[in-house]
Amino acid sequence: MAELELKGVYKDYKLENKTKFTALTDVNLTFEKGELVSIIGESGSGKSTLMNLIGGLDSDYDGEIKIDGIDLKSFKDKQLDDYRKKKIGFVFQSFNLIPHLSVIDNVTIALTLSNVKESVKHERAMELLDKLGLKDHAKKKPTQLSGGQKQRVAIARALINNPDIILADEPTGALDSETTSQILDILKSIADNENKLVIMVTHSEKVAKISSRIVEISDGKVIRDEYKKDYVKSEKKDKLLASQDIENKDLNNKKGHKEGHLSFFSALKLSLHNMWASKTKNILMAVGVSISLIALILMLSLGSGLTGYIDTLAQDYSNPNYVTISKSGYDREGNELEGDSGNFMVPRMFENEEIEEVASDINTYLQTEDSDFQIIPSGEGQNLTYGFSCATIGMGTVSTIPAVDEVTELPEKVRTENIMYTYTTPSYYTDDNLIAGNMSGEGEIMLSSAAINFLGYETAEEMFVDGNQPTVQLYINMTYDGVRIVINESVKVSAIVDVSLFSGMMVMYLDYDFLNTCVEQAQINASVEPTGLKPSLLFIETDGKETTDMINGYIETNRKDLSGSIEEQLASMFSEMMSTFSIALAIISGVSLFVALIMILVVLYMSVSERTREIGVLKSIGARKKDIKMIFSTESLLIGLLSGIVGIILTLIIGGILIGVFTALIGFAPISMNWYYFAIALLISVVISVIAGVYPASKAAKLDPVESLRHE
After folding, report:
1. DSSP per residue over 243-273, as a string?
2. Cα separation values, 350 from 89, 222, 331, Å
3. 549 pLDDT tier (thresholds 50, 70, 90)
4. Domains of the chain and CATH, by start
5. pTM metric for this prediction
6. 63's torsion region: left (phi>0), alpha (psi -120 to 50) or beta?
């Protein structure tokens, strides 16, 4: 059986004007092992087309091209890939070496595509390079070699898989006379001593002279098929493939290796080589993508930091063993109450029956949850106490002289400050909530840090040296329970309270019983029956955090008419605002990430264009579409990893600087760089890079090998 047989082969090309051009007409040829064939003819005669058909680069033809009795046209894509990988070795006029790979990597690329283990690849390649006089050049790049050395590397690459057929396209066209003779000696030796079929496409008479057979083509037809009777075989010498003459299956003798499949790690190595060859471009792209990641991480960290700061402050003014309850201004179904007068200026107050109802409902719920805790509103074991809070700006002041009901002018040295908010001291407050001083009692109030400068002191501690207490005049003119009342009392400042959330405002705390006494006296002065203070806050002392959470959960789910303390409400409001702010910033960062995705796609698309010939070379030595996709997809994966790592490093540097600046300016840094933000950013970087690489990788895989090899 002939090694290669062509029967009635026709090849047509469709032109742009939909006409048909016939490149080959009724080609009938038979080739045997050990032949050194020159296919000659004028440019455009069809000889290169014939070589592409024989090499399996083009399977769109009519007729039969049989290898070992099997028509190539019947081969599926995978079989064609295997055919080019195992049966064919290409030697090109322009060498077509991959510039960013070393000599040895260029030679072993076909074995890499077959997933041959490293030791076998290296041994085979070094033996070939040694016999071709290139052993000392194994680690060099193609740009460091002469033309003759490059062609020897190309021959070594063609022989590495021990193919049956060597196809050489103008193998000496780019070489000088002396180097041409050396290359022809090698090709002749391969045919004579290795018993390979060597087919050379050439214009050169010198090449044709050394051949055992000449096939001439003109206008797509074979016009001469001449066997040279005076052909003299090469002298016997050491075979280039002496130790390589083994079955292809023996190449993959490592357990777990699958013949014909490029492994992920091999694709990774090839991608790293290419990225390193274009390192400046890739580093700049990574920095560009990392800017979006930096923005994303910093925005998330800022939102988290501010939210955490607010939550921490809210926790500072609460106690895990206490539940704080106020009215919400809605009914139990969540509908806004008509005529509700409750606002910051006019508090919503609890009547006695309402307090009993709240306690009863919560107790019933706790029983259904098998909790032993019960609220006791009064009497022995009482664990429910009262509180009051109200915005008093415009209605309440503290001043350094006794106040009067109506003051039109004050002496120059008199200082008066609006009280922004009035609280009764929560049941759970202790000395830990104070900056300086002691808890207030009858005739005393506690003020926020704004009072320090107001009263003329530098620090809070100065206010209470040797037990001294500053005296101020407390003046409140407000509508309470439908009646206008005035509280006008000379009081002592017992402490400065830590109210970091409102530290710049004048906030007042005073004892509930003392405020009750003041309200009763004001009612008497207003000639109304003294009912005293009605609570706007209820404090329930629980038996632990679990019960506290249980009651808070019940109120949130089942009692829309109730809510927590004003601090908790404000903290919740600020937290929601910060969450919205963080989401908005993340969306903005997301837009920049989309721009980064487009940038990666464009760069990878350009990379496909720049490496079109390389893709053609890979396909000529048997690379499957999946292999090409894997190489480019792996490269996009590496770009994502590189961008993510660069982004994380730069974020840590910039974040450290920002933390230092914030700490120096405002005493704390509202930035919380959680580790999972970095993990998310790295994952996003990889995902958008892989997504961006899908189209370029698919385009690269679909490139026509013949057109790719012609690409300049």
Report:
1. TT-S-GGGGG-STT--TT---HHHHHHHHHH
2. 94, 109, 14
3. confident
4. 4-252 (3.40.50.300), 277-310+575-710 (no CATH), 322-562 (no CATH)
5. 0.67
6. left
